[in-house]
Amino acid sequence: MRIVAADVIVTSPNRNFVTLKITTDDGVTGLGDATLNGRELAVVSYLRDHVAPLLIGIDAHRIEDTWQFLYRSAYWRRGPVTMAAIAAVDVALWDIKAKVAGMPLYQLLGGASRTGLLAYGHASGKTQDELFDSIREHQEQGYKAIRVQTGVPGLKSIYGIASNATFEANTGTRYDHEPAQRGARPAEEDWDTRSYLRHLPTVFEAVRHEFGPELPLLHDGHHRMTPIQAAKLAKSLEPYDLFWLEDITPAENQEALRLVRQHSTTPLAIGEIFNTVWDYQTIIREQLIDYVRSAVTHTGGISHLKKVLEYAAQYQIKSGMHGPTDISPVGMAAAMHLGLAIHNFGIQEYMQHGSRTNEVFQQSFTFTDGMLHPGDNPGLGVELDVDEAGKYPYEQAYLPYNRLADGTVHDW
Ligand code: CS2
Ligand code: MG
């Protein structure tokens, strides 16, 4: 079964998505997500100009060999662009193999290890009242675990605060906006770590008081703290029993987390911007984290992320795969098949795509009573309507960035 076509489809129904579609000489097609938020066209070029021509004629069943060929023959390894491109090829080939086998992909990965995947959603509010409303709204939608992001007094705009979620009255769907904004330049936001560190524990105290001890609560620090600030934060949130505290440091400096561990037992999650097992080498071996945040889309696909998670399993570290709206339904489905099959599944992030996105990508996965399931269609269970996709051409969009009060650029 040889590959006869590898097409890259760019579409922007509610936001930009890049999808690779591989076709075999038997007429079987497979999809892979290659969306890199705010830098989408770099991956488009990598795939169209450098990878697609190499795929023609390759045996579509040789997934591992194709992965190794693309990774090693380029000489320039790792990095988000390369690894998103390889991920798209890998996932498309798994989709094809599972369709040919007539099975949902999770069956080829070892079969289901559980009945469904616990998902968490994003609650947020500038004020306490808005935050409480947002938590209740998520609970009404079925979410059993909730990420809490909050405004900070004195700061104008903050990461993760949904001015952000829209209710589409015509379809009854709730659409979670991600911070990327269409336009020619990134939006500028402000930041003050000391105000944030003072304010956040008061918010979690109020949330625990209102919603009780049972509800799993998560929080994302979005890479903004130094190691000692991160240690302070993790320690100050300990009484509120978080499910996890995410991205408290930039973590390129993996050793930095030793300091945090010395001061706190708050569980830590890191890795949404990591691309390979090498980015996790120290933090897994030294047990400096509790959850691996990588997405299939940005970590070389199912083949590579499975290896990362198997390594993590030796240290009782679990999965917590990245699932914002900038992961397309194809990438989400890949995460769900992998999450259903592995033993060390932890939790799956799940934000909801808009109705236009759901028309472009027809999906078989379900979200019922707070649990995700990839469905039992052969393959990934996602198909792309190319005509529908063609209605929404690419639009330039950027993630925002931060400056401190004196104008210094800060981690966003
Ligand atoms: C995030 C994302 O979901 C998360 O935890 O940190 O919202 C992230 O900001 C975006 O995916 C960036 O593209
Ligand atoms: Mg995050």
> Which secondary-structure class do the elements indicate?
alpha/beta
Quaternary assembly = single chain
Helix tally equals 13
CATH class of the largest domain: Alpha Beta
CATH topology heading of the largest domain: TIM Barrel
- Unreliable stretches: none
Note the gap between the termini: 45 Å
CATH superfamily of the largest domain: Enolase-like C-terminal domain
Give the number of DSSP strands: 22
Mean pLDDT: 95
Helix content: 25-40%
Q: How can the largest sheet be summarized?
A: 10 strands, mixed
Molecular structure report:
This protein is α/β, with parallel strands linked by helices and about 400 residues long. The protein has 2 domains: about 5-105, Enolase-like, N-terminal domain (Enolase-like, domain 1), CATH 3.30.390; about 115-375, Enolase-like C-terminal domain (TIM Barrel), CATH 3.20.20. The chain is about 35% helix and about 20% strand. The protein is built from 13 helices and 22 strands. It has helices at about 40-55, 65-75, 80-100, 105-110, 130-140, 195-210, 225-235, 255-265, 280-285, 300-315, 330-340, 355-360, 385-390; strands at about 5-10, 15-25, 30-35, 115-125, 145-150, 165-170, 175, 180, 190, 215-220, 245, 270, 290, 320, 350, 360-365, 365-370, 370-375, 380-385, 395-400, 400-405, 410. The strands form 6 sheets. Strands 4, 5, 10, 11, 12, 13, 14, 15, 17 and 18 form a 10-stranded mixed beta sheet that branches. Strands 1-2-3 form a 3-stranded antiparallel beta sheet. The chain has a 3-stranded mixed beta sheet with strand order 9-21-22, with no helix packed on it. Strand 6 and strand 7 form a beta hairpin. Helix 6 runs parallel beside helix 7 (about 225-235). The protein is globular, with a radius of gyration of 21 Å. The model has no long low-confidence stretch (mean pLDDT about 95). The site of D-mannonic acid has 11 residues, from loops.
